[in-house]
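Archive transcription. Copying these from loose printouts into the bound notebook so they stop getting lost. Printout 1 of 2:
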Amino acid sequence: MRWDHLADRPVPEAGGTGGPAALFAADAVTTRTFDTPEFRGITFHEVRARSIVNRVPGASRMPFEWTVNPYRGCSHACVYCFARKTHSYLDLDTGAGFDSQIVVKVNAPELLRRDLASPRWQGAHIAMGTNVDCYQRAEGRYALMPGIISALRERANPFSILTKGTLILRDLDLLREAATVTDVGVSVSVGFTDGELWRTVEPGTPAPERRLDVVRALADAGIGCGVLMAPVLPFLSDAPEQLRETVRAVAAAGAASVTPLALHLRPGGSREWFMTWLRRTRPDLVGRYERLYAGGAYAPKWYQRRITRTVHELADAYGIGPRGRSFRVPVPEDSAPPRTPRPTQLTLL
């Protein structure tokens, strides 16, 4: 396993050189396993990171410039997860290893406090959960998010969170406190409501209806919550009646907006793992996927526009959409082609 020489661009802090630095060193890693049902089969690599605030590459065209990711790898085990490739940077497996070998940056809250206190930090918006979920199961043990949210609240630093996890409700009081001093955006990812599909493509996540309960609880608490309807899976969750049922359920939960994103399959991890799953469970769809994604990682523009148009129309019919409350809806960092115009979607800001 490779821990040294994993470089990243550090946050511009006082006295920083601006050059690349290893994120953590081998002598700062502790490997643990826990023999409890929720963690059985999962290995945790506890590291003391050297940086925690990461700059998003400009070519990504995301509506934010900075992210915080306290974990690498994700026990949600979503077969389509675009972040799988990041495990290869550590010489870790991007398939089952991504689901079961979780890197925990145990000093994330203290690092964030240091970075936010830097005179060179200008208080830019910070997005969380856009790479791997910051409220995955590991958070139940390590509880890094309360310290992270507290650090952001203390500095009145705007932030947003994207999650599939119900554990975010543990931090509801902290989120409400932060929302009184800064811009707080929360989005829950619910790509579909089909229970059978959920069990096979997102086996480590809370059920879609439990995630919609989170939307409802946040709305009841006065925190505007959007739904990222992602991913829409071609030939699996994109039938008109499936899209209608998902948008209907999202509206019933009190979401302030819904933003659809079609599945994208980047090589180097997610494409290979998803196609392996597809050959095993739905071999009848393999040819259709190979043709649809023959042009690259992203579904064709005509397909993306069709999904977006349909969801727009359904959102209007159910009384939700981009003209509701103003807050940021975080999206995955790798959710759009880097140098081509994006299809029309519900507003993200």
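Printout 2 of 2:
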Amino acid sequence: MTSTAPASGTAAAADPDADTASDTVADRSAAAPGSSPWQLARRELRRRPAVRVSLCIVLLFVLMAVGAPWLGALGGWSPHEFDKSAVDPYLGGQPLGALGGISPEHWLGVEPVTGRDLYARVVHGAQVSLLIAFAATAIVVLAGTAAGIAAGYFGGRTDTVLSRLMDLTMSFPSLIFMIALLSVAKDVNRIVLMTAVIGIFGWPGIARVVRGQTLSLKHREYVDAARVGGAGPWRILTREILPGVAGPVIAYTTLLIPGMISTEAALSYLGVGVRPPTPSWGQMIAESVAYYETDPMYFVIPSVFLFLAVLAFTLLGDALRDILDPRGGRT
């Protein structure tokens, strides 16, 4: 008995990471027996203050995007309405007053030269940016999940064709092709076009993740039992395989959104995205470059909103990945 205690203590000291990982898994299993992924996610998110703050910021941006017409009307100005009285025509159209013209009439100031209200344009810009990001993410997730499950479950020629299509799509320099496609198209809805183009080049990443998960699930006992019981491929895919890959898909989805927001902003910044007068954060940042010395607030305000949106979605996505897909997060 006396020789056993030092040996166990030495083993514990030699591998503290293993003890910590096993304790974490044991705590989660003991704290939430039979919990669904969403219940586990809610329980873990409550324990992380930084993630709670990020979740609040995300909800604020979503509410801002949904309620943009009403929130913009609170300031009393349309995003396309000029206010020549808020700029000085003798100083090149610089905003009157301190901090870019911030005043009770214009809560975040005005644009130089035009005098358009920055608060209204930022709020409506959130609607455009998040609409494109969410719609493109939905296309990527649906197409990638369907392709990944089909490739992993059916295998053979189906897997070969879909895998080569993934490789082909990922081999393209996506940003260059996005710029080329958006530059060629003229008289089309820019929001719909950007959503489709971003979605076309984004699906292979999640398809690879889902394919790998499906390969590990299709030979599990409950899948074999369903197959022996006479269940068809569609029932097995929707009832057995899809719930098993839901956790990684949810985690990957939340990490896709900030990338989509940044992509939309980058394309608008380069002049091939959303066209004026439709407001967009990337477009506003691009226009503010010419005034960053004389009116820095014009550059700071849309940049801060873009930074907070990307940061909040990224932190929330990292947390959900650690909770719902811990094995993928470690790799």
